[in-house]
Each structure stands twice: as structure tokens, then as C-alpha cells.
């Protein structure tokens, strides 16, 4: 699902999607779709809405990127691709792969491009002054809300899968978490489209918030469950990264710590406490908890940006003079704008995701058949993640060997171990 989404989004992006998200205006919330493949277009100097920056003294500076459009096309593609890959986490374990293959291009065109153009591409929310520095709304709130909506329409996994869902491999999860944390520096650090002061601030704040959130989440696990959890630490890291994203280059580093404290606690409460008490959340099977780690953390970060955005940092990258409510002036209005932008993104994703899935359901079942779910969503494709002894092959001591001592002699202990391994594998 992830590989397909990454490849399919790229082709749809260069054929139509990029200019729907960053091209000329068609509607206040949507750009005119057109290919981003022509040599003249791709080699021209990149054009971005934030070409005029306002300073506190009222003066304005025109800034033009010093890189070709092709750079911006690919950079923004990675944001679009990760949004759909995050969304996949909500429907893992039961969604029909054919339905997913139809869903990816439709959701990209009719949902993602709307949020991207509205907040980043010069649409009505951008013109109005709503802030989303690097995707807290466009990426994380969208994927969390759309994922929850999709999980509702696709239906839950088998009862046995929901009751016991251990990690496939904790070490690989940690490796992926490390890559994610490292890569987020480019994610947020690249948002100003330049290696400038604001990019440096964004990278520092990103890591400070993630570290704080990880520590808070882990501490809450220790306090309430008596022991820390590797999975919990990764969840805390994730919510910290998501929360800082809407304001990474716009808040001071002390504010990044405040955001980390809240992102390590509020999503923890929503996942560990409220989820278990909510009939709706219990009914909807969000496999990887994308709603909590991305939607809750994303909207939290957007609202906190409306409170904590620092005026001088805002002046470095935003076209209008902007400040958070904490800094007085018109900051209270900014907080309301953040609330309104979140409401639009949530509403659009619920409606668009629902309509897309209902349309697909007319032609393709959204769920895998029950007999295929019994086999498993990977085995049904004829593949196993860990086929230790091959397809249908049983443990054979003459073929696979036995545990021996350093001197090549089998002893009773090793024989017992071998017998236990053979029985386990046969079972």
C-alpha cells in the first residue's frame, strides 16, 4: 500500500496534482490542474506565494527562490505522498488493495490538493492569514481525519486481530522511528524554501519539541502503567514532531518545549483514556491510531501556533504582519483564524473521503472478503513477511541441522532445544 501510494502519487502529481495545489487559481480553494512536465516550466525559476515578506516596520521585501520549479515540484510531492501513506495506517489489515489503488489518485486530486492550495498555494485561507508552516493541517490533520473516516467506511479488522496486535518487529520500528525523526528536520527545515535563519530555528524547534514530547509520554506511561514502553516513546516522539510542524519556524524555543509538554500529554489522554470511553472511537478501527498521533496532535499544534507565533519570526517568512495571541495586538484574531482553518480542513476531509469511498464501493468492495482476512492481508497475496521455512515446509532436522556444541557434539540440552523448536515450528 505504501509503495503503491508513493509511486501513484508522483505520477498523478506531475500530470495534474501539483498545479492544482500550487498553480493558478480556479476556485478560492483549488488551483487549475495542468501537467508539470514541460521543460520550460520545470527549468523556470520557482514561483511561490510567499514572494513578498512583511517586516515589523511596515516595509516589504520581495524574495525570489534561486532554484528551478522542478525542485519545488518534487519537494512538495513528498508531502503529498506521505499524507496518503499516513492515511493508509488507519485502514491496514482489511482494506481491499484494488479499492486502495482507486482511492489514492482520487483522494489526492479531490482532497489533498484542496487543503494544499487553500493554505499554501495562495488560496483563501492563505490570503486570509491562516498559518501552517510545514503541514500540521495540510498533512497531519488531513491524514488523521481522512484516515478515521476511511476506517469507518471500510469497517474493522477481525475481532482476533483487534484483540491481539503485537508489533511485527520492535527493532525495525525503532529503526524507522529514527529515520523519521532525522528526516523531519528536512521536512520542517525545508519549509522556508531556503537555507536561512528561519530554517535553522525550525530544525532546532522540531527536535526540541519531539524530545520533550517523548519524555512526557514516557513519564506518563511510567506513572500510570508502572513501566516505560518503547512503542509509547515512539508515539510521543511522533506527536511532538506533528505538533511543532504548523509553527516550527514561527515560535521561540521555549515555546517549543511548552508545545512538547502538551503534545506528549493531550494525545496520550485521547489515546489511552478518551478512546476507551468513546463509543464512536471504539467502533471505528483506526489500526495505527493515526487519529490520535496526527489529527489530535496536528490541530493542537495549529492552535498553539495561533497562541505562540512570535512576530519577528513570522516576519521572516509570512507575507503579512502576524503574531500569536500571547504577544497581544491582533494575536487573538490569529487564534480564531487557526480554529477556522482547522474546521475547514476537518469538514472537507470528512465529506470528500466519504464521497470518494462511496463512489468506489459502487464498483469495488472496500473490504477484503472474510475468508481472505482469515488468511491474512499479506499471505493472501502469496507472500509472507517471515516465511522461515518456506511455503508449507516443516522443520526437518536432516535438512535444517541441529544445535551443536563448539566441538560439533550434540548434547541433551541442545537436543531438547531442537525438539522444542521443531514442535513449535510444526505447530
TrEMBL record:
Family: Belongs to the ammonia transporter channel (TC 1.A.11.2) family.
Example of a GO MF term: ammonium channel activity
Topology in the lipid bilayer: Multi-pass membrane protein
The Ammonium transporter AmtB-like domain, residue ranges: 3-386
Subcellular localization: Cell membrane
Keyword list, A-Z: Ammonia transport, Membrane, Signal, Transmembrane, Transmembrane helix, Transport
Signal peptide: 1-23
Residue ranges of the TM segments: 73-92, 104-125, 137-155, 167-187, 199-218, 230-248, 254-275, 287-309, 340-364
Main location: membrane
Organism annotation: Salix purpurea (Purple osier willow)
Record's protein name: Ammonium transporter
Entry's Gene Ontology cellular component terms: plasma membrane
Pfam family, one: Ammonium_transp
Highest taxon above the source species: Eukaryota
Amino acid at each position: 500500500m505504501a509503495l503503491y501510494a508513493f509511486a501513484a502519487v508522483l505520477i498523478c502529481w506531475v500530470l495534474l496534482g501539483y498545479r492544482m495545489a500550487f498553480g493558478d487559481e480556479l476556485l478560492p480553494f483549488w488551483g487549475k490542474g495542468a501537467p508539470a512536465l514541460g521543460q520550460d516550466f520545470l527549468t523556470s525559476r520557482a514561483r511561490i506565494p510567499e514572494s513578498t515578506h512583511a517586516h515589523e516596520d511596515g516595509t516589504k521585501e520581495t524574495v525570489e527562490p534561486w532554484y528551478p520549479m522542478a525542485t519545488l515540484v518534487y519537494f512538495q510531492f513528498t508531502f503529498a505522498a506521505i499524507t496518503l501513506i499516513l492515511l493508509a495506517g488507519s485502514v491496514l489489515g482489511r482494506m481491499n488493495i484494488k479499492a486502495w489503488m482507486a482511492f489514492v489518485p482520487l483522494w489526492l486530486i479531490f482532497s489533498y490538493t484542496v487543503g494544499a492550495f487553500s493554505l499554501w498555494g495562495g488560496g483563501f485561507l492563505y490570503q486570509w492569514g491562516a498559518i501552517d508552516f510545514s503541514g500540521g493541517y495540510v498533512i497531519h490533520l488531513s491524514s488523521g481525519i481522512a484516515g478515521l473516516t476511511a476506517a469507518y467506511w471500510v469497517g474493522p479488522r477481525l475481532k482476533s486481530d483487534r484483540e491481539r496486535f503485537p508489533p511485527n518487529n520492535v527493532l525495525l520500528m525503532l529503526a524507522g522511528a529514527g529515520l523519521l525523526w532525522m528526516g523531519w528536520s528536512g521536512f520542517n527545515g525545508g519549509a522556508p524554501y531556503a537555507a536561512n535563519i528561519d530554517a535553522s530555528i525550525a530544525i532546532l524547534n522540531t527536535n526540541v519539541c519531539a524530545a520533550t514530547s517523548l519524555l512526557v509520554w514516557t513519564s506518563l506511561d511510567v506513572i500510570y502503567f508502572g513501566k516505560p514502553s518503547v512503542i509509547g516513546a515512539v508515539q510521543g516522539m511522533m506527536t511532538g514532531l506533528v505538533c511543532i510542524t504548523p509553527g516550527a519556524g514561527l515560535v521561540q524555543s521555549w515555546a517549543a518545549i511548552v508545545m512538547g509538554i502538551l503534545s506528549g500529554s493531550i494525545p496520550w489522554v485521547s489515546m489511552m483514556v478518551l478512546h476507551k470511553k468513546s463509543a464512536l472511537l471504539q467502533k471505528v478501527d483506526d489500526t495505527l491510531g493515526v487519529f490520535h498521533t496526527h489529527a489530535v496532535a496536528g490541530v493542537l499544534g495549529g492552535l498553539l501556533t495561533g497562541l505562540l507565533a512570535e512576530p519577528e519570526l513570522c516576519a521572516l517568512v509570512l507575507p503579512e504582519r502576524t503574531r500569536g495571541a500571547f504577544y497581544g495586538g491582533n494575536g487573538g484574531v490569529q487564534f480564531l483564524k487557526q480554529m477556522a482553518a482547522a474546521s475547514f480542513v476537518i469538514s472537507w476531509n470528512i465529506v470528500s473521503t466519504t464521497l470518494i469511498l462511496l463512489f468506489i464501493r459502487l464498483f469495488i468492495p472496500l473490504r477484503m472478503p472474510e475468508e481472505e482476512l482469515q488468511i491474512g492481508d499479506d499471505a493472501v497475496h502469496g507472500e509472507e513477511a517471515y516465511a522461515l521455512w518456506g511455503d508449507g515446509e516443516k522443520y526437518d532436522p536432516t535438512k535444517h541441522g541441529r544445535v551443536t556444541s563448539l566441538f560439533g557434539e550434540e548434547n541433551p540440552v541442545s537436543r531438547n532445544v531442537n525438539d522444542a523448536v521443531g514442535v513449535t515450528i510444526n505447530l
